[in-house]
DNA sequence: TTGTAGGCGTTATCAT
DNA sequence: ATGATAACGCCTACAA
């Protein structure tokens, strides 16, 4: 026998296909308990699985979500994906994952792909703010979507975000409280909003204590280790700063490496604070003080938000709070 | 207007739906160039997208693959996923990713989910060897599948694997050549075949040079950092070995940490060789010597294999070769 | 070269 | 409480 259909089930159970369909869809009314059980038994026996194509054809639902992230190999994202996947599966959705590599080109292609696959919704971690043409495509296709991590735009779209300004503030405050007065910062790309948010929060904390952050102590990185490694050299050699705030953990690793090469001891000679608290950093020696975000939970929350949208409920963005995790890489400066 | 159908296109272009269908499916014969162009133009104009449900209903194909991995948060897997995804997408397939957490329970559930979603094929990184009930489910559902990384079983199923024995051998050989004679090994779980393969290859290399590997110098780990960290303590404190082969990079990180705590310098006092060459380790100081595998390419290859299966071609497993990457963590032992 | 019509497996709308 | 039947949108013999 090939695949069983409700027709087959109906025949075998001696009922109509309508009845089988009712059982399948848990319609409670309009059926005797006996009939229901009879049908269920047959379905059980043959391990019946309804054809999703046929179903989708009429219901217009695929029970599938799409997730677009920049790059799963970026250690920030696996946790986020897990959160999204676990929550999606608990709500009986499958998840199609796409990596955009932060290329508008690919974002578009995948948006198109997901539209073709007729996903019921999309969770989107965009390049930065949502590209206008992406936006148009999304609205034309009328696919519900939520943003995550990036692309915050208060009024326009709902999503799940981190309070990056606060994160930066926590980092700055922590270093100030330790007694640091000459502090450097390695930022993410200026073109990315969350990167600027972190810097601004950081500066605000310093300013509150009257500490200056001269441009020469701000280095623009790209969230990658390599560039942070190279660009931190000047800053470290001039010995002008006693502490550095790296706007993500991966760049903090780059600083670790350069410090080690230059014979600068962490934290004795130099304190470092990272951002994200990705799993990777448990391998660092000494352990990295960082600003933690609950990426996994953010992923779960994004799915909840999306499901609410599907149910036409009013949705508002969810803002997560970062927390400071003090470990070994930050301490008071030497006198 | 709601979604366009081929019927709408047909009307607008003044042809029959058959003709539209033909254009859609790139049937070359049986149509004048003019007609084709006319239809294409209309499709272009309205940005037509065929309904995959309707299509699948008749073709029985979803243009979707499923990928089951233990855990995307394990740093070995993101690269593998990327390989699978990139190759799948280039062949016009979407990818549903599932994390089994190495639980047979979840493997089953996801297998079921993928079956329900009617994926065209599955790429499976099983717990170890393929569970008999999984096997049964797979064959009952008649879903083509290939294994990847784990579950090698020469005769039974094809897949993409690494020559782990060779990898272990390379590690052993390298340390021997550096002059080490007292060497420790931290293995993966004994229950996992590839873990034993690595150990066996390693032992073979030592044996060739008449070097013993007493049981006291073999520690069974679980591929995680924590356990490797704790369990390596004894070995390191007794100062019995001048080198350690950790059967994956993550465990090597654990050893780094313990060595640091005990004031043991790497590589002066202790050489370390890892396995995998995961991206994470670029953060380690000193840089880790390791056995590299081309995980990304293995992912791509798995998709190729699967596609060949779909085309009913004869398929045989693909075996990848690991390579030794010498960095800073291994050197000759002190006299 | 082009068109007609039946069927794919469900759900949903009416009947009974 | 249960059943017959028309969609849903596409593909594919078979006709013309």
TrEMBL record, chains A, B:
Key words of the record: DNA-binding, Transcription, Transcription regulation
Domain of life: Bacteria
Matches recorded under Gene3D superfamilies: 3.40.50.2300, lambda repressor-like DNA-binding domains (1.10.260.40)
Matching InterPro entries: HTH_LacI, LacI/GalR-like_sensor, Lambda_DNA-bd_dom_sf, Peripla_BP_I
Organism field: Lederbergia wuyishanensis
Domain HTH lacI-type: 5-59
Protein name: LacI family transcriptional regulator
